[in-house]
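Lab notebook, bench 4. Still working through the backlog of constructs that have no structural model yet. Next entry is a single chain of 447 residues. Request: give me the structure tokens for it.
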Amino acid sequence: MHSILIIDDEEKLRTLLSRIIRLEGFQVLESSDLKSGWKLIERNIIDVLICDVKLPDGNGVDFVTQVKQKFPAIEIILLTAYGKISDGIQAMKNGAFDYITKGDDNDKIIPLLYKAFEKVQMQQRIHELEKQVGKTYDFNNILGNSSQIQEAISLAKKVAPTDATVLLLGETGTGKEVFAQAIHTGSKRSSKAFIALNCSAFSKDLLESELFGYISGAFTGAQKDKNGLIESANNGTLFLDEIGEMPVALQAKLLRFLETGEFIRVGDNKSTKVNVRIIAATNRNLQDEINEGNFREDLYFRLSGFKIILPNLRERKKDIAVLANFFLEKFALTNNPIVKRMNNEFLEQLKQHYWKGNIRELKNILERSVILAETEELQLSDLPLELQKNQLKYSEKSISAFDLASIEKLHIQRVLIHTKGNKTETARLLNIGLTTLYRKIEEYGIL
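Model written out:
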């Protein structure tokens, strides 16, 4: 129940105002002066303060500043018998929610209170979200209750306190960087730098310069020495995302660093020693890349001492509701405050979607839906057209029991069940590439 404090020295007006507000179902406290009103504020949780401007022991406009400094969440509505514009302007500058003239209050106060409560609730939701954002990199805030994600979290928690190199495997959008940051936060290096580098974002030469740094004159445009990210991450953690995209020639230098802790800047002839923990990630099958000559096997062995496979969203359907509600609340705060929830049809369609883009795709879909929504409840019509249709586009195929495709689909399903949904292990047992497996899963509509 919302709590309101009225400070006014006119007893009849105060009593009348209290009665009107209580009829709306709100809890009301009363005070005749600022001193006793301040004591009530300190002893009770007050959502909205209604305060007269002229009081025996002070001025309500100045009192706004005092309240806001110590209790910024309280919304304040000022009352005056005079309605001086200068007082109203100053009150708003001091942080008042609004300012009304006595005599108008009977008609205006209730609608104004509801608006003030909306702001109070919004600020509370923002505060809760800020607390969650502040813990974004804590394991407790990786959302999901499915056994697959909990197993990944458990492994990450065990390796976090060590200095072991970690290799995170999983499709695009499964949260590899979030896991890397959580591992860093859970380590003894948490007070030091966490630096992320996407290996697919640079050419070979630029990637080498970014990673190892360079000295003045090393190449055209190198006018002064520059530290690389490895050096900047000294005593902290360096996250190498999309490690499978790193050029083979550069992989040899990374391997040397992993083995010795030393590196050489571009153009330099002496080595520099640092203490950096490496966490790498990729959405590629590195075994396939090794077979094709695109990745060094010795580097793979050095990186994969502790592997964690992050499940895709299709493997953790039961987590979709939790994730969707989180994104709904987040985007409602910033984009469309009227949105409160999603209906069953909307949620069911989310559960049926294939989610090739995983959590990142779900996040984008929820943001779009919240922006487009015109009611408190997200509906099927708020989804993109491709999600409004049944995504099991291959389920309508009538495949004969003697059809080769039917046999292949059944066999893949059985192996997936055997491996408990582990795609990498399934591909290995089927003796096909992981990419080929995903293509067949999509082709046959296997969920």
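Notes after review: The two ends are 45 Å apart (CA to CA). Residues 390-401 have pLDDT under 50 and may be disordered. Flag for follow-up if needed.
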